[in-house]
């Protein structure tokens, strides 16, 4: 159980978060509150591990999420004791705490002013810049958030997390082109991130669906390539196969006319036999994954329940259309 | 599983220690006898001091094999080195794949390291999360 | 030998390589010193001592293959004695530990030889 405390809790389900925060009083009681600097007394106390502070940080976030302010304050207090309140990461955590405590927009504005004051002193304080962007976005001031984020990327263009956030903001505004561009920047930094490959494929599919039909054949072809790469980087990647299945279905139903220009780019979709083969492979793999997951086979239980359900629905839909 | 390998190793070490002590006693006895029977011929002395009794030799070899077995069983689980196999294992098995033989998840297991690019802990919107959680509680 | 392009298409996970190599070399250096103890007790001298070491090192590697590598690599369709799922080269797996443990072996060999035959 504690292993999931070593990873940031953002993606956990509410049930797991609740479970974690219910454990919080126990963990706080059993872990050392402060680590002494004196060499003599450190012989007798528990050793200080880097994991301890990660656990406190993640516990703090889980507790805030579930509304357990008391434990959250205890965690923060220990982190401040250890690292001091001028540590950049601790400053961001203090900010999160204030944001969570705020009840109305006026208080949030005050927090925002504090962030700006901190940035006046040190404009390259990355955690605080990120907090400011998140707060601006949360307040609905999207243009300001984008400006702040591009400012951050100007001085640290290798921050893949920031690029990914930028892509998500663009995506929420329906600007698919920019969102895909930002994710491609992430891929430059992390060329083997299989989930980002799949994410670009999904964005391409959504941009086709949203209606700008200028060159959907080219985009479908590229989406196909993205999904194929994500599968190449990761065996049995459910999300990749799901996207591949959707793309091939679309391409088979409505084969786009090959255009001269797309062909010279090397971005045109592959020919019919290849498409059918890919479609068959995706169907087969999705079937295998859903079957093994439902059968409760060992070593196949890491998938997300909701994704499995979606895959099964997709398979049922496609099999019913082929029967007709 | 881990208790099995540990007990195998311990048993092997006990055997080895016993063999070591026996061999020491044997050689001490030999030299003592050689000193007291110095009137005997030189050839007999040499033959007696150099050869170890068969049971001690056997015990030593068996102990070594047992210790080796225990040590091999005690090694950590290997991890696949090809990217797609490694990533596939993370996606397919989750924490299950990183469980050592004793049933604990490896300390340095991080899951999908690129998950952070999608959850983005630095940009967490804590108020939205709180709201979602409150709604989830209401539904329960 | 795979080319640069192949490494781009099918990358290798450096953390896993390090983890596996560490597991194997830890095992080999530890077992080498145990073999030294055994050789000292047996009172082996010169060539027979080295022969003993080589035989037991090969035995260790075989055991390691049987218990740690074979179950998963055979299941994933690799041939017998193919370690490419966990190690980059065959040489690294089969011969890498022989020389790594030799120093530790000689150390404990001479120590226990001296202790027992004092």
From TrEMBL, chain A:
TPR repeats, residue ranges: 160-193
Stored Gene3D superfamilies: Tetratricopeptide repeat domain (1.25.40.10)
PANTHER family named among the record's database cross-references: TETRATRICOPEPTIDE REPEAT PROTEIN
Single GO cellular component term: EMC complex
Coiled-coil boundaries: none
Subcellular location: Endoplasmic reticulum membrane
Pfam families linked to this entry: TPR_EMC2
Originating organism: Apiospora kogelbergensis
Main location group: endoplasmic reticulum
Residue ranges, compositional bias (Basic and acidic residues): 254-263
Protein's name according to its UniProt entry: ER membrane protein complex subunit 2
Annotated function: Part of the endoplasmic reticulum membrane protein complex (EMC) that enables the energy-independent insertion into endoplasmic reticulum membranes of newly synthesized membrane proteins.
Topology in the lipid bilayer: Peripheral membrane protein
Keywords in alphabetical order: Endoplasmic reticulum, Membrane, Repeat, TPR repeat
The UniProt record lists the keyword Hydrolase: no
Top-level taxon of origin: Eukaryota
Family classification: Belongs to the EMC2 family.
Subunit and interaction comment: Component of the ER membrane protein complex (EMC).
Xref: InterPro entries: EMC2-like, TPR-like_helical_dom_sf, TPR_EMC2, TPR_rpt
Region (Disordered) location: 252-274
UniProt domain EMC2 TPR-like: residue ranges: 113-197
From TrEMBL, chain B:
Swiss-Prot/TrEMBL GO biological process terms: protein folding in endoplasmic reticulum
Chief place of localization: membrane
UniProt keyword annotation of Membrane present: yes
Recorded topology in the membrane: Multi-pass membrane protein
UniProt keyword list: Membrane, Signal, Transmembrane, Transmembrane helix
Subcellular location(s) of the protein: Endomembrane system
Keyword Heme: no
Cellular component, GO, one term: EMC complex
UniProt signal peptide: 1-19
Similarity remark: Belongs to the membrane magnesium transporter (TC 1.A.67) family.
Name used for this protein in its record: Transmembrane protein 32
UniProt lineage: Eukaryota, Fungi, Dikarya, Ascomycota, Pezizomycotina
Automatic annotation (TrEMBL), chain C:
Membrane topology: Multi-pass membrane protein
Superkingdom of source: Eukaryota
Transmembrane segments: 27-44, 50-70, 91-116
The keyword Endoplasmic reticulum is assigned to this record: yes
Main location: endoplasmic reticulum
InterPro entries hit by this protein: Emc6, EMC6-like
Alphabetical keyword list: Endoplasmic reticulum, Membrane, Transmembrane, Transmembrane helix
GO BP, sorted A to Z: autophagosome assembly; protein folding in endoplasmic reticulum
Cellular component, GO annotation: EMC complex
Protein name, as recorded: ER membrane protein complex subunit 6
Subcellular locations according to the entry: Endoplasmic reticulum membrane
Database matches in Pfam families: EMC6 (PF07019)
Family named by the database record: Belongs to the EMC6 family.
